Amino acid sequence: MSSDKRPLSPHIGIYRWQITMAMSILHRATGVALAAGTLALVYWLVAAAMGPDAYAQAQALFATWPGQVLLWGWTFAFFYHLCNGIRHLAWDAGWGFEIRTLYVTGYSVCVLSLALTFSAIVWVYYLGATS
Q: Which of 1, 30, 64, 67 has the lowest CB atom count within 10 Å?
């Protein structure tokens, strides 16, 4: 057998991390998180259909601090996936492939997702305090 001196295929350890790479990975991860969040939504709806005791138990579960962290994580996943999906639609239309535009829209998606999540948190707690 002869030993080939061909180079190995590049892999993740060779590339330098960039925002576009991180955002692509995060877009996929938020898609998975949204699927998991859908299961939690189904649990909540089934509990509501089963009656007041099951609904109260589901509400108590989501009111715990781990439940709140999951809910706000799912909220961020929703807003990130939405904003980045709009960015992908712009790419499908042929806009935004210049390097500067990639970085500007990438950082804009991150900032907008965090801002929308924060505003959702403020509104939920504000509405809860006034009711």
A: 1
Residue among 76, 81, 89 nearest 24 (CA): 81
The CB density around residue 79, as the number of other CB atoms within 10 Å, is 21
C-alpha dist (Å) from residue 46 to 49, 58, 60, 129: 5, 10, 15, 27
- State the Rg of the chain over Cα: 21
Q: What CATH number should be reported for the domain whose range is 19-130?
A: 1.20.1300.10
- pTM metric for this prediction: 0.85
* Contact call for residues 47 and 58 (beta carbons, < 8 A): yes
pLDDT tens track for 18-56? 898 999 999 999 999 999 999 999 999 999 999 999 999
The residue assigned the tokens 């492939």 is: 97
